[in-house]
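Narrative of accomplishments. A recurring question from our advisory board has been how the design workflow behaves on a single, concrete structure rather than in aggregate. To address it, we present the structure tokens for one chain from the evaluation set, followed by the sequence designed for it. No filtering or post-editing was applied between the two.
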């Protein structure tokens, strides 16, 4: 499931637009918005794609740390988990404190 960052409606991974407000989920899902913030943050050096313990084989293959400009978009295309893609992003920081 993906969540619209504009109205918080949940939609299946296969949906491209929010069923409630019509927002383009390729631009306004909460995961895409979070990734954009990480990419814009100078303290984030890389982005880790983390997977759930019960992740499908496709998602398990994508698990890893990526340069900020090469991070795969979520949901992972080809995810076969019955609950939908459960991957998420984690920032890799260059410094923790200012």
């Amino acid at each position: 499931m993906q969540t619209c960052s504009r109205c918080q409606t949940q939609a299946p991974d296969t949906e491209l637009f929010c069923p409630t407000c019509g927002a383009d989920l390729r631009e306004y899902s909460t995961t895409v918005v979070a990734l954009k913030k990480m990419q814009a943050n100078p303290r984030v050096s890389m982005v880790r794609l983390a997977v759930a313990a019960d992740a499908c084989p496709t998602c398990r293959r994508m698990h890893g740390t990526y340069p900020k400009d090469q991070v795969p978009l979520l949901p992972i295309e080809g995810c076969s988990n019955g609950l939908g893609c459960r991957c998420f992003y984690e920032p890799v920081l260059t410094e923790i404190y200012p």
